Amino acid sequence: MDVAPTAADRRSACLAALAQGPGRFHEPRRADCPWCGSPRLRVLLRSTDLLQRKPGTFTLDQCAACAHLFQNPRLTPEGRDFYRGDPHLYGAHQGLGGPLADRLLGTRPGDRRHLARALALRALDEPECWLDVGTGAARFPALARRVLPYTAFDGLDQGRGVEEAVRSGRVEEGHRGSFPALAHRLAGRYDAVSMFHHLAGSPDPREELKAARLALRPGGHLMIEATDPECRFARLLGKWWPCYAQPRHLHLMPLAGLRAELTRLGFTVVAVDRRTPHVPADLTGALALVVNGRLPQGDVPWRARPAPLLRRGLRRAGWWASVPPLALAHALDRLLSPLLTRTGFGNAYRVIARRDAGWTPAPPPRPDQPRSGVARPATTSSTCSHSAANAVFSRPSSSR
């Protein structure tokens, strides 16, 4: 059984990584939009790491031509590893208690939300093979089997959780790594591919969409849930809007831009939902981030000296004192959710698109339009074949 490293275990490595300053974790700033190529950019916001409070400043730019939001300058792969690491050591809920904080912040999808996702696709098709990209510990596949008992679920993720998901039987096969890098090995194997809040953290969402097209058979469905940057809470709460999630979110795509790109890649959008995927945690999350920024830091490995016992006690006490206002914000998020999702305050959208059988690349777009890449033909298959040659790892074969 793996034991999570403590702050003391990680301190020397974190301080060594920061020795040259956090600027080393950024790529050069780009002068054009990564989605459409337009040079008409504006700074939308600048923020620090409001969750873990690691050193560094991050900028979100917005394209005036296509409204695409992206981190500029973007984190390097090393930077992404650094800022996404250590979630077990520190977070907005440190000192409050993990399960309670997950409920208040809405950071962990509940069973009902997972089942709603599966039912949304079952209304259109009952797939034989489903690949869940960014599956983590594969909670979605495990729950989706309740409504899709004859579907074989595979998982793909860059973290170690997918290996445990295979061992525990939550997925048939697990693939660890980048989806674009593994897509050629998975060509034409799936009737369904899902990406739940996966594209925002990807360095190149367009490559993820191409990989999905390659992995799908003709007629198969791609289901995407993503943060909606057109949510009115984004303007109301500014940098405290939890869905900005800097520095972990690299791209936030307006629905229109995603739909246009799917069409260019040979998909037909068959369903769009801007209400059901809403996560009622905007007010709670914003308040939690504010409280987190006002309390003293706990014992974290990116500070040279361990936090004294008094400071850690004050932090824990501060979090417990914040429970009543957090609970009130949580109640408001829940009670107002039906109204908010009808008035432009929904913070997420769901798109289901069908992969067309015949497709030729769209003509090159104008500079202010998204650019599509070169098409790669997908290999079709009439059965849901799983083989050790194709999988990174799989559990012992069983009847389906």
UniProtKB/TrEMBL annotation:
Matching Gene3D superfamilies: Vaccinia Virus protein VP39
Sequence segments annotated as region (Disordered): 357-400
UniProtKB keywords: Methyltransferase, Transferase
Gene Ontology molecular function: methyltransferase activity
UniProt feature, compositional bias: Low complexity: 378-391
Pfam family, one: Methyltransf_23
An annotated GO BP: methylation
Domain of life: Bacteria
Protein name (database record): Class I SAM-dependent methyltransferase
Lineage, uppermost ranks: Bacteria, Bacillati, Actinomycetota, Actinomycetes, Kitasatosporales
